[in-house]
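does this look right to u?? pyridoxal-5'-phosphate version
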Amino acid sequence: MRYWKKLSDEQINQRIFSALEENVDYRERVPLGVPASHLDEKVFYSNAPILKDAPFLSTLLKNPNHIGCHTLGESESFFQGTQAIEKELIALCAEDILNGEAGAFDGYVAAGGTEANTQAIWIYRNYFQRDHGAKPAEIAIICSEDAHYSMPKAANLLGIKLLSVPVDSETRAVKREAVEAVLDKAEGVRYFIVVCNMMTTMYGSVDDANLYADILESRQLNYKIHVDGAYGGFFFPFAEVPHTLDFSNTRISSFTLDAHKMVQAPYGTGIFLARKGWMHYAYTEEAQYVMGLDATLSGSRSGANAVSIWMILMTYGPHGWFEKIHILNYRTNWFCKALRSLDIPHFRHAGSNIVTIKAEAASLELARQFGLVPDDHETPQWFKVVIMDHVRIDHLSELVEALK
Ligand SMILES: Cc1ncc(COP(=O)(O)O)c(C=O)c1O
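got this back:
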């Protein structure tokens, strides 16, 4: 691990408060041209004694703007202290979690998984248009039918096609024949933005990036691969399941992770990661007033979000994080064993903490009582159980009793 270490509360406080010292303090040095300030003091008290031990709240109050992408070089100097924390967080995720080479990644903290997925698709659409002269109708996103709805949303926003690959209804796996059949019918499409799932929203299923890459290469088609790890990115890499879905696979160019899911960070903590050399396809040249320009979809965004993710990861450290995931995996194993003993049909991808139960095994009333989420609110075929931190074996055993 180059960046990820377990730090004490005191070390974390010291690091965040000294980063804040390097940011502009609107009370001490008054920048006259910045259309921003600390949070309103009539509403948000800035002098409460508790703040001296509360680095995240202090960052929120000081309100740093992390506009732009700080791994690219120049950024707004007013917030350089907390930007450095974001840069370190991006390197930690790309290198220590996703096995990328040192110093080879860009990225930023986005509003969420939807934005990070859209950022990737935007970059590759622009690349195919600029470097290959592709027309929008020749570019398509290709992903499994279980992919998140941010893919059709991005296709709609960016004016490109979406090719949805049917999955096996039992294993939720994308099969070679299904990809081939979709490509056979994709008339006029020559450029492909593959989005692979590292745990789908409903099933926790994981795709094989090499399957897509092998097929597209055998047809001599142009493609780029993005991985949507919005749900699984902070879980699956720690589940000890062999896979090729990280940056050690050179066919993968970018990744989405979401800290506001498994990491329990505040909302607004999606993470976009890309190999160096890709962010510039998203530069908006007209952003001249922003130092370093802007290559993100967000525009202004709170630096407190990056600080919150960094603090959580450093509090656990890599071993603490592994233990946390291990416990959730243990609870999931317990639940699956109980379902098997009752012959309740369900799906669970190895190394995932999502268990999806066939709707025939549970009544709507039971689903409502236990807060199970259906695949479709009108005509549910599956209900999912997500074994998060607050879902203990005691809760799962109540569900098992009810399912009996
Ligand atoms: C796999 C996956 N991708 C993307 C998203 C979108 O994330 P957000 O709601 O943070 O935009 C989700 C959300 O549940 C998801 O599960």
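The two ends are 46 Å apart (CA to CA). idk if thats expected tbh
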